[in-house]
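Hi support team,

I'm filing this because I wasn't sure whether my run with adenosine-5'-diphosphate finished correctly. The job status page said complete, but I'd like someone to confirm that the output block is well-formed before I use it downstream. Pasting the exact inputs I used:
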Amino acid sequence: MSQIEITDVSVTFDQKNRTINAVQDVSLKIETGEVYGIVGLSGAGKSTLVRTINGLQKPTKGTVVVNGVDITKADKKALAASRKKIGFIFQNFNLINNRTIGQNIAFALTAGGYPEKKQPQKIVELLSMVGLQDRQDNYPAQLSGGQKQRVGIARALANDPDILLCDEATSALDLETAEEIITILKDINERLHITIVFITHQLEVAKDLFDRVAVMENGKIVEQTTAYNLFANP
Ligand code: ADP
Ligand code: ADP
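And here is everything the job wrote out:
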């Protein structure tokens, strides 16, 4: 069984006078340790699809099985347990601006039930993984965009996830900084064997990262291939 199995998933949003088919009959399987890219134009449905993996978005139909648990049928407790093993990285970092970097990480640790006494050491460990161990007393405004995203990565790793969902994680960054973030993610994938699902509208940024890629258009997956094939010249 694959680590993530999305089967015949559709998500529709009912607006006043129309229905938006954000995701339409999508099926895909993602294996443990894989770096899986989902690319497509803005509005293609990438974010909605990826949010079904951690239960942030409930599918209108279909099933989403993560680590053997069908989260579309899971009760609150099972859903919370599944979500704890999934880190999420955002385009705009989503840091708490009036808390220090250390406090931002502590917040995630506490939310995941990590014992308070052991938090200081864990915070240093997490920030060391992204090269920011000497920044824990800084506030987010004192960091560059790339540094903020590195904090976002450290926070996403706080509860030892086995999956990282990255929603346009490099889209707010310049190309050089984006490449730094990709290098860090690749290293995390290789060293910690964490599965990465990375959605982006910036094809060029992620071609060195992906093992496989799905191309989304109008809520549907129109192509599934290796990154090599997607970028090979015809
Ligand atoms: P992408 O991530 O590829 O940019 P999204 O998944 O964000 O695409 O959006 C897919 C479609 O669903 C878009 O038409 C978007 O406007 C719509 N959509 C997304 N979320 C909602 C929502 N909560 N309510 C209504 N429409 C939504
Ligand atoms: P970038 O070149 O990535 O845009 P910046 O010019 O924003 O980066 O920042 C360069 C360096 O200065 C970074 O190491 C950042 O942490 C530091 N820095 C930026 N703004 C502040 C600030 N207000 N207080 C302290 N350090 C800062």
